Amino acid sequence: MEPLFLYNTLTRQKEKFQPLNPPLVGMYVCGPTVYSDVHLGNCRTFISFDMIYRYLLHAGFKVRYVRNITDAGHLEGDLDEGDDKFAKKAKIEQVEPMEIVQKYTLGFHEVMALFNNLPPGIEPTATGHISEQIEMTKKIIVQGFAYVTNGTVYFDVEKYCTNNNYGILSNRKLDDLLTNTRELNGQDEKKGRLDFALWINAKPEHIMRWPSPWGWGFPGWHIECSAMSMKYLGEQFDIHGGGMDLIATHHTNEVAQSVACNSTQPVKYWMHTNMLTVNGARMSKSAGNGFLPKELFTGNHPLLERGYQPMVVRFFMMQTHYRSTLDFSNEALKASEKGFERMMNAIRLLDNLKISNSSSVNIAELKTLCYAAMNDDFNTPVLIAHLFDGVRLINSINDSKETITETDLVELKKLYHNFVFSVMGLKEETTAKNNDELAEGLMNAILAIRKEVRSKKDFTTSDLIRDELKKINIIVKDTKDGAVWEQEN
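User: That's the sequence. What structure does it adopt?
Assistant: Structure tokens below.
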């Protein structure tokens, strides 16, 4: 197989993928914060990295895929102040915080299953790794990059910047970051404006709290990913992923923590998915244009004309590169629905194609093009374009306009199984399959009736049946082997 190239946010260029310990690949993806329903922007990230995970497995790598669950330490803002979101929701609903966590974790898993995402190999939680976060914080203090104020441990960004580049991931200079950060005005425990909490002192009324060398408290948001990725993937690993909105703060702080602790860059390849827009406007809850996945499936949203099946949405997402902005619209989803059905219809035809002594189609070239697309930073839009070129070949073979040998047909079936089902993670929707079986049965009955009237020389009725079917985009063709039909897109 040709080498794989991926875009590295750290270097801002495409690089040849060379794992640190081949064939093992360590991949960590920032998972959901489970105090609310997972939104569609999160889903795009998880679907994209599911595709990347699937392709790495297909390419022969052994992947240790870690995706965390944030169930503690996520405050209302990034300023290390305000309530913990889990505890706040628990108070409002008058339940235990872990009931909130369990409810939304199960909901997240349900949505991922609907999208046919493979589960990660390891799915650690922040609350299950408090000791690892405390130990990492202790080491950062010993290294001289953190300080304690009233039971809260802060990372000293300006001290870190003495010999390290804090903005290496975001490509921003320290002076620019300081300019865009509010003054402390003596009202903050922090020494520097960019300093962030590794461990936070818990107020007496705080529900989620643990003992530590600095008193009862809870971890900051950023330390969990550094601690858990190091536990399961080591001080250095291959791929770290997430949404591009995590670059400026969360991932920047992850890099700083890990370098301060271990004196080495933690990740070889940083990868990020782009944002979602709706009809050209940025998707957000405040704008009223944000979708929950189930709203998209049911159509129960003011901006949706109707619902769309999960595989149609997944296919829609694959038609845009993971690093490009993805724009949702009813028109785009309808087009994807037609494209998805066209792809599935072609795959169904594969089992019924006639084999010949020679091939007039070049399956080897199609296969090469498909792999070239995926090896170019997982370029699913180009892959899909090549697969639709193959769809045209399949339809031409079915119409006896092209020929294919048994060997090439085996390769063609394998190609579509690998890329459509194994790599892109698509599958036939149950309802769509049932509808297809019903349509097939009805059409067989109609064509049997048409065959009967033709045998009686009743060509007027025969033509009437054909013309009426054409009005609903069903084309009937008479061949030497009998009548065949297809749905015209």
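The longest helix spans residues 430-455.
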